[in-house]
Amino acid sequence: MDYRSYIENGNAVLGIEFGSTRIKAVLIGEKNEPIAVGTHDWENQLENHIWTYSLDAIWKGVQDCYQNLLADVEKKYGCRITKLAALGFSAMMHGYMAFDEEGSLLVPFRTWRNTITGQASKELTELFQYHIPQRWSIAHLYQAMLNKEEHVSRIHTLLTLAGYMNWQMTGEKTIGVGEASGMFPIDEKTGDYDAKMLDRFQEKVQEMGYSWKITELLPKVASAGEIAGYLTAEGAEKLDVSGTLQPGIPVAPAEGDAGTGMTATNSVAVRTGNVSAGTSVFGMIVLEKDLKSVHDEIDMVTTPTGHPVAMAHCNNCTSDLNAWVGIFKEFAEAAGAKMDMDELYGTLYRKAMEGDADCGGLLAYNYFSGEHITGFEEGRPLFVRTPDSHFTLANFMRTHLYASLGVLKSGLDILLKEEDVHIDMIYGHGGLFKTAGVGQNILAAALDTPVAVMETAGEGGAWGMALLASYMIHKKENQTLEEYLAEEVFTGARKNVVQPEREAVMGFEKFMERYREGLAIEQAAVSHLK
Questions:
Q1: Cβ neighbours of residue 48 under 8 Å, at least 6 residues apart?
Q2: Which of 139, 94, 101, 96 is closest to 120 using CA atoms?
Q3: Where are the alpha helices (DSSP H) in 9-160?
Q4: ∠ CA(460), CA(465), CA(468), 5° rounding?
Q5: Do 79 and 7 contact (CB within 8 A), yes or no?
Q6: What family does the entry list (predicted)?
């Protein structure tokens, strides 16, 4: 295809996602295939016991990401982007960005990683009879109210990071329904915030003496396929510091990384699910019927079109695993061996598959931060063994791979074993699945479910956001998102499917017995290692 003309004519579509450690932009072509990429690495900061990213970091990051995309386009096709057919932004879900009437940020952005809203989460869950996770925007708001924080009386607008970008780019305070479901509960019938719960919350607002209305603070909700605004001249200047991007581009409803992950793995249909495994890990299953009970460990969110999804979200996944790989890298370098990181990861991950199915009695906890599902507000990474454990490199690496999914399995087992939720297929994406035949097999053993990894899985949420923007402008009349993905994106897509192996499933269950018993060790570490 003549990509140069396609780009110069303004036909390409762009998706940008703010991940926990990387901002990524993916430009797609006529068949929704990625044709150019830009990235920017960043890290959150712990300031006054709050995990945050500054506004300066947000803008420098997205501007650098976009300039790197332009450089990739220039290198590959010898042209520049001046127009786009559509655009969309997504970001790590939830969190708290509160603004005053003038549009000034009142307190530093509080990200999903903060576990400081336990009282609010508990009280709102009781008030709504609906589980409200600690990281949800409404939990952060209510906790600030309980804490009598000075800024609360001056709040005029409440947003997530994705919603903030939509506002800055279009002037519209609008987000996608999937992202909105991480701010406040959604009524499946209306596709909007639950009216009865809004009323209950407003009663609390009045009781506590605040004059604002929650309905005026929250952004508008839009479903996939709707237009959430158009790129303004000011937005274009903020995004493209070179000044060549033209305004007027239709912008898709801002989504969270959960919605873009579902889209990028073609798992928005009933009885499908996906697991995104990187710095954090979450598993999502699109439900065919309501759950029987409210579970503190399970979040209820939606697909980008508003269908109910059960979600187990875990704050920790590969950080501890990555740290151990870093130790092996230091050893290799000290021994005079040179290995690039992909080779090192591949070697160690493949070695893990030679280990005992139950990890030989070894145990690890990957808790850099707290884990709500297992009841921890803080974490301490730990590795534990008994004198008679089978302590080998293979078992050591297998243990850390199992541990990276231990909390996730604890949460999803509630759905699979207690709620009798059925899944036809789980789609895996993220760094854990990069080495073929390792993370995929480990997840299949953890969930006792077939796991597929698509050829496109590495493109991630930025590609998923680009697909949502493409659906917005290219969908046929009455074509659902599920149909669009099946017919226009994933037709003939190659995927590798593994079935759970019985020995590995039983081994993971045995590991989890040890994992649950050992949680007291993790609690002792939190209590005594300050």
A1: none
A2: 139
A3: 55-77, 118-128, 137-146
A4: 130
A5: yes
A6: Belongs to the FGGY kinase family.
pLDDT in tens, 327-340: 999 999 999 998 89
Is residue 465 within 8 A of residue 252, CB to CB? The reply is yes
pLDDT at 458: 64
Q: Is 273 helix (H, G, I), strand (E, B) or coil?
A: strand
In this structure, are residues 44 and 119 in contact, taking their beta carbons and an 8 Å threshold? no
Question: Do the Cβ atoms of 128 and 136 come closer than 8 Å?
Answer: no
- Which phi and psi angles does 283 have, rounded to 5°? -120, 140
- Distance (Å, rounded) from C-alpha 129 to C-alpha 146? 19
Tokens describing residue 214: 């929650």
In DSSP notation, 178-194 reads HHHTTTS-EETTTTEE-
Strand partners, 286: 309
Q: How far apart are CA 265 and CA 241, in angstroms?
A: 32
Strands 86-91 and 13-18 turn out to be parallel
Cβ contact 70:63 at 8 Å: no
Domains of the chain with bracketed CATH: 3-256 (3.30.420.40), 319-404+503-528 (no CATH)
Q: What is the pTM of this model?
A: 0.86
Q: What is the maximum alpha-carbon separation in the chain?
A: 68
Measured CA distances, 437 to 453, 474, 500 (Å): 10, 36, 12
Strand partners, 283: 275, 312
Residues 498 and 507: their CA atoms lie apart, in Å, by: 17
Give the Cα separation of 489 and 482 in Å (integer). 10
